[in-house]
Amino acid sequence: KIISLFPPQEPYDNTDSEPIMKMAIVGKRNAGKSTLINTLARKQRVIVSEVPGTTRDSIDVKFEMDNKQFLAIDTAGVRKKSQVKDSIEFYSMARAERSIRRADVALFLIDATLEISDVDKKLGAYIDLERKPCVIVINKWDLVKGIETEEYHEYINKSLPGLSFAPISFISAKNNDHVAEMIHLAMDLYEQANTRVSTSELNKVVEDALKLQRPGQRKSKTPRIYYSTQISVAPPTFVIFVNDPTLFDNNYERYLGNQLRSKLAFPEIPLKFYFRQRSQTKQKTEHS
Prior knowledge:
three-stranded mixed beta sheet, 8 helices
């Protein structure tokens, strides 16, 4: 009798599924992050103001596109260190960094009407450090006159060399111009980051790269690569077995990454490498 007094139970609804991709929307103050969030959510979810620094807290917003669930992480804008005068602004950078770590893909917003700043470079360097797939989003492009996208591409690559492989999307968040294309681009990066390649295909590319350019000889040793294998995704991570890891410096790692990006199925994302020394027993066996 008591149970009969309760309202009928609603049928189970599983439409609120886990998002297939989490995107961190980061950038300096007033780059248009909150406007982009509101455009994606098709409603005003965060306060938008012309006053820089209106948004102080990280906000997670679910939205749907092409019948797929996404999660956008909006963060407080970051300002120059010299302007960090209170704990709230100090922690805005920490929140941006945490959002980047949480995300599958970073949407790195840059205000097209302003020059690339030290804050932009710092955020770009952190995205590179975390090996996070990134779309460089040039917002407010509708306000720019007399500059072609190719010219701006060159400017971005010079200003943010650590993200030279990252695709660039020119949008107007306020007018919803090219926002859908930006999300599709982020989805493509997500798929690239979760790609695995066959061991034979990987070793062929690494072998060809070594033939084309070897590391500089040091310690009277000739650098040798014996074997390569992919051990993880997001980002694609590789172990390269060599005769001496100290012979393979950061420059050669960048070269190898560029070679893999140009030949394999992840042309626009960061890659991670570990150089490991092959056992002395195996090396002696091969040379005997």
